[in-house]
Design goal:
alpha/beta, seven-stranded mixed sheet, 7 strands
Length: about 170
Amino acid sequence: MLDCFAGVGGNAIAFALSGYKRVYAIEKNMAALECARHNAKIYGVHNRITFFHGDCFELLGLDDGKSGRKIDELVAVIKKAGIIFGSPPWGGPSYKDADIMNLENMPYSLDFMYSRFSQVTKNMVLYLPRTGDLNQIADCVEQEDKAQIVHYCICENSKALCAYLGSWKDIEV
């Protein structure tokens, strides 16, 4: 499991606690990354999470080789049997005001993330705004692939969408 936008580690820690043998987490903000490392120690999973500092697209070699920062070993592991999880920045609280949010207006657009991450694995989970345009999600996947959308609600309040994209064959936790 690779968490591409790790922040302070909440999702990576949850994956490690839920049984994933190895979790990889990328965060480009060093202060947030240090918090993530600290939080992983508090939860006792620091030995199951490998943290990387940098931009996920650069570290996965999805920047057309411009940065020269690609981590070949990480890419190989994820290509073989991995899942990419991404909870990208949504662009601020304005998503709450839209009846349907155009996912191409996020700092990393849906199409940009899907086209890049698909070069590493077809199996990805994207945590998206609750008002995200379902048609855009359906349109981004190829005909032979699947998209499953889960709408997360807490106490009858809509919180987010989780888009499960890919074939999901031969996935090992």
